[in-house]
Amino acid sequence: MKAIGSVPSVPRSETIAHAGETVCIIVRARAAPRETTFYTPDDLELQVGKIVRGPGTRIARHRHPRTAPSAGRAVEVLLVQEGRMIVDLYTENRELLCSREIGPGDIVVLAGAHGFQFLEHTVLLEVKQGPYQRAQDKELF
């Protein structure tokens, strides 16, 4: 029995896969982790996580060595800063796999075919491998 005034448990993240491949990872703004949490699998071309540290702690000075460019799949990360939208996810055969509503503060890691429907004025922060090459950046279907 649900207690009066209780809020249903919201998963911190959802991984959507098809044919053994990660298509999308959604990291919800609600329910922030209590400790550092990485949401992407080790073999994905980007690493996405939330770093949690207490006051006075430090991360030692460092830099990341250059690596050879990867010929792997393009992966992009979107942070919904304001607004709401639907992300439609597709299989490699261009068939609709599923749709999810995304809102302010949610993070979407896209590693497969996708499209969007905007439900209201929306502002997104996008992060993906560069450089951006307009002519080769998208394969529309």
Describe what this molecule looks like in 3D:
With 141 residues, the chain is mainly beta. It has a domain at 13-47 and 73-128. It has no helices and ten strands. It has strands at residues 13-18, 21-27, 37-38, 49-50, 76-82, 85-90, 96-102, 107-110, 114-118, 123-128. It has a five-stranded antiparallel β-sheet, with no helix packed on it. The protein is globular, with a radius of gyration of 17 Å.
What is the overall pLDDT average?
Answer: 86
Which parts are unreliable, with pLDDT below 50 for 5 consecutive residues or more?
Answer: 1-7
Shape descriptor reads: globular
Radius of gyration computed on alpha carbons: 17 Å
> What is the overall number of helices?
0
Order of helices and strands: EEEEEEEEEE
How many strands in all?
10
Q: Structural class from helices and strands?
A: mainly beta
What layout of secondary structure does this protein have?
Blueprint (H helix, E strand, L loop, with lengths): L12 E6 L2 E7 L9 E2 L10 E2 L25 E7 L2 E6 L5 E7 L4 E4 L3 E5 L4 E6 L13
